What does this fold into?
Amino acid sequence: MVKSLLAEAARFRKSIGTKNESSLHKTLKFRYTGSGGRSEVEVGEFVADGIRRDGEYIEVQTGSFGPLRKKVKEFASRGKVRIVHPIAVNKKIEVFDTKGKLLYRRKSPVHGSLWNLFDALLYAPELPLIKNVTIEVVLADITEKRVKDGKGAWRRKGISKLDKELSIYHESVVFAKKSDFMRFLPFKKGEEFTVTSHSKETGIKRHMSQKVLYVLYKMKVIKRIGKKGNAWVYT
It folds into this structure.
């Protein structure tokens, strides 16, 4: 096992400066590209993570959708596009030394949920409105491997991130049309609400409700009808 970890660390160091693709990204890329599909395909000035046998473009994005804006528009002008976005419901962290020896493992206190989709959409709220674009959220348990090499961020006390792996695949949720986003609104049609009331009804934190309502407003799922004090009123 130690030898395999050493080899993994060596492959990671070799990949820096070239193409640094996590195991999580690679697993989802091949899972969704499917049998008979092609991966890493040049399309115009961009490279698609995959193209399925039926012609659908696959783009795996673990972070913000902002960097995808131009790429997805280009792919969507040619055919169907599926953005696959993993969210860590549970995360386990494993820390190794530079020789590949496991020092310790722990569970992260942070748990993701479907609401975290809005972290990704915040800087690209128009993507779900583009014709031919589908977003598929993968809810999974993820293992993050780190190495204690003294080169990481000071917040992690010099520990560098090594890799991410998919541990358990729970389920996926598909957003293919604007109405699919109504699940995030616990209100009746025509009912008025604010960030505060949305946060109270859903049980999520206020800052997340702000993101959710901003994105849904930009998507024209909801509209602003005025203000109550300094707060926008939506319907």
About this structure: Helices lie at 2-15, 23-33, 69-76, 117-121, 195-202, 206-218.
